[in-house]
Write a structure and sequence with these properties.
alpha+beta, 18% strand, 3 strands
Length: 77
């Protein structure tokens, strides 16, 4: 069974999550719980913090399951 990546967007970035890569460390939810949640759906809410802080957390993902790209060629702010 193939599991597809999930996408979450705000006006600056789109965040993708690949559940097949995730090692379930919980680092994202522990360190930035206002954006990443283990119990609330949708589990990624990009409106709850600044884009640069979200990017910093994504770059700490140990498995690479979380990625981001900038929307409309805008700089993240």
């Amino acid at each position: 069974m193939e599991v597809k990546s999930k996408e979450f967007s705000n006006e600056d970035i789109t965040v993708t999550y690949d559940p097949c890569k995730c090692i379930l460390s919980g680092k994202c939810a522990k360190e930035l719980s206002e954006v990443f949640s283990n119990s609330i759906i949708p589990w990624v809410n990009l409106e709850n913090n600044k884009t640069e802080r979200i990017i910093e957390q994504i770059e700490r993902c140990p498995s690479g399951a979380l990625k981001y790209f900038k929307r409309n060629n805008k700089q993240a702010s």
